[in-house]
Specification:
mainly alpha, 56% helix
Length: 82
Amino acid sequence: MGHNNISCFISDLCMMFGIHYCFNIHYPSGLVSTLGFLQRCFFSINPDKGSKVEETRKPRLRVNPRVLTLIQELSDHEWRDV
C-alpha cells in the first residue's frame, strides 16, 4: 500500500462524515461506537443535541459509554509523563 492509498482513505473518511452530517444520515447500529469515537475524537464534532444513531425501539444513551471511556483513557494517557 502506497502513500496515495492512505491519503485517499483519509479523504474518503472525511467525505463520509461530511455526507452523514450534510444529509443527516444516521450511523448504522453496528458501527455506532466506532463512528461515534471517530466523530468525537478525530473530527471534534460533539453535538449538544441529537444523535447520529439509527432510531430503534429501545432507548439509547446519547453517547455510547464505551466511547466516552476510551476518549477519557486516551486523554489521560496523553497527559502522563512517560
